[in-house]
Amino acid sequence: MAAISFNHPVTRVDEERGHFFGHEHGFGHHHSTHIISRPFAGRIGGNQQFAINHLHPDRSSILHRTPDAAPYLSWSDSFRLTPLLHLELWKQAFYEGWAMCMFTFLSGLTTLAVAPLGEATSLGGFVPTLIGVTETIISLALFIYVAGPVSGGHVNPLITIGTFCARLATFPRTVLYVSFQLVGATIGGFLVRAAIDNGPLPAKALAGCYLDPQLTTPATAYVIETLSALSLVYLAFGVGLDPRQRLVVSPSLAPILVGFVVGLVLFCSAFVKKGYMGACVNPARCFGLMAASGSWNYHYIHWTGDITGAVINGFFCWLMPPGSNARVDDMTLSPAVEAEESK
After folding, report:
1. Alpha helices in the chain (DSSP H)
2. Which terminus of the chain, N or C, has fewer Cβ atoms within 10 Å?
């Protein structure tokens, strides 16, 4: 294989540690930097750029410690509990929880701030929904950019469960991520409550988390939530995880597109039925805000609908996988790995 030249400083990969070594030249000086990048097939926005090929004999030690460093792992590898023995996975889960805390806080503040605008104009909920969707697009893209190199940038149990169903994340990682996401979202929700200093959060102002049982049946909400969740993971996987899109949609652009995907789903579901304030598509966010409000009406729909959507998407990923570990496929290798292997 011919060597590949790069316009970025990454020139060598130490896959055993998942570390990247960069070399930069400028002003007559040679600088060497040590950049940690953890291989994870389920990294949102990476388009499997940082995944490794599991058939390479020198990568067995990495895959023993981190089975989901390579895509399309077997179910037996997925349920192996040995990754729980490594502190690195716990630190990544903690980082997910920390990101979820800040995301919930910012989202909650925005939701409460724009809620009164629904009665201030003749447009009703259109204006606050548009503002909330815009905030989500911007903040989510930025959180994915920041959290991606550390934890994979899920910031959402739907994405985490979706990657598990698509065999891109292990069961231990899924359990830890979702657990820390819930803890982080709960802390973020109560920080919103402390910030406004006005008692429990008003449940009816929590867009995406409130359902009026007098106007909307749980069955209707479940259908909307399931199809919204399925649409989100289908589109997010297409722009942020499909290795075939690497040359079409740059991995650096994918977080922005995922932000637009979430914004699209939220906007389209916001006005579908009276008494229904839009799809949740992030059950951890609603868990945290509803905990701070003290109202848990129909919260189970946020989980059952999202899990159903993730399972359906996982089935289609199994039926028509974008890649395979049955052979050595360069599409699953990052350019930096290819350059190293060509030496």
Report:
1. 60-65, 75-78, 87-114, 126-151, 157-165, 171-196, 218-240, 254-269, 283-293, 299-319, 335-341
2. C
Tokens of 115: 């809620």
Query: What 3-state DSSP class applies to 19?
Result: strand
Q: Which sign does the torsion angle of CA 182, 174, 35, 136 carry?
A: negative
Rounded distance, CA 315 to CA 296, Å?
30
- How far is the C-alpha of 44 from the C-alpha of 68, rounded, in Å? 13
Which pLDDT tens digit goes with each residue over 295-316?
998 999 999 999 999 999 999 9
pTM of the model: 0.84
Q: What are phi and psi of 161, to 5 degrees?
A: -65, -35
Identify any residues that bridge with 20 across adjacent strands, giving them in sequence order.
13, 35
Q: 């579901």: which residue's tokens?
A: 269
Q: Which residues contact 29 (CB under 8 A, 6 or more apart)?
A: none
pLDDT tens per residue across span 183-235: 999 999 999 999 998 889 999 889 999 988 888 889 999 999 999 999 999 99
